Amino acid sequence: METRVHLSPRDKLYFRGGATYAQDPFSIAGLGLLLRPGQSDIFVARINGDVEHALSGHSEIDYGLEGQALAFGSGDPGNGYVLAPNLRYAWKTSARSKWDLGVREQLFFGVGAPVGSPRAPNGAPGGLLDEGHSVLLGYTYALNPWTNLTVRGGGVLVTGLNQAAMPTARVLIESYTPGTALSVTVAHDLVIGPSSAGPLIGDIAEVGFTRDWEHVEAHLRLGVYRNAAVSRAAEIGALGYGTEVGLGWKFTRDLRVEVAGLRDARLNDVTVAQQVDRNVLQLRLTWEKARFE
Length: 293
Prior knowledge:
By secondary structure, this protein is mainly beta. The chain is about 0% helix and about 65% strand.
């Protein structure tokens, strides 16, 4: 579910949430390149909410919360979730540009682990494992009336079972018109991973494109990803890619049926790749209500 709402003349709400449960070999919840051999039952949940409160015609305060949960069955060491509240102050320097300065707190929780797990050698009921404390500076520039470029970066201090400091950065290009949507993302940040509960270093380079005609909708996504342990940031880690292509037919203006093909695969570990690479064919029923103001 995704929605944008004007709560008041000064307040705007953006919310996006979703959940997936999958059993091999039918689907892999879009996380195949990160899976550990033996993980077949996958539950993924994500939420992302932001409230923009205008202080004046040139400044605002943004309150946000991001969350993600992963579960693979009772006792799996990858069971966990992360909550990331954030606060930003933003000000416009021109009709096309905006700066923001903010803080973010990432709280990584585990949901139990078996005896012998690296994160809980004696077994543990779970709880708060690590915290990521970030200070971020961002800049947004309107390339044209329907395309924004956002660059945001800063530093992250990790405390808890892991102790580390690292830079973080994200470059995002988003373009929306009634007929097309384009998204380009390049990022280096802390992410949640399935090998064990807690943070990983995640690098991403991804592009997505959607084209909408009167009765037909087509979309394409291609991304390359890297995961590395926080304590071994200089190592190559796990490399993989994901791709998706889909075609939809509209029954009505808001309801369509889609067919999509996906592949998630490892790039640098051929032994594990034979066990976690996936090819997926999906049939979807989608309802979407769009309004442009």
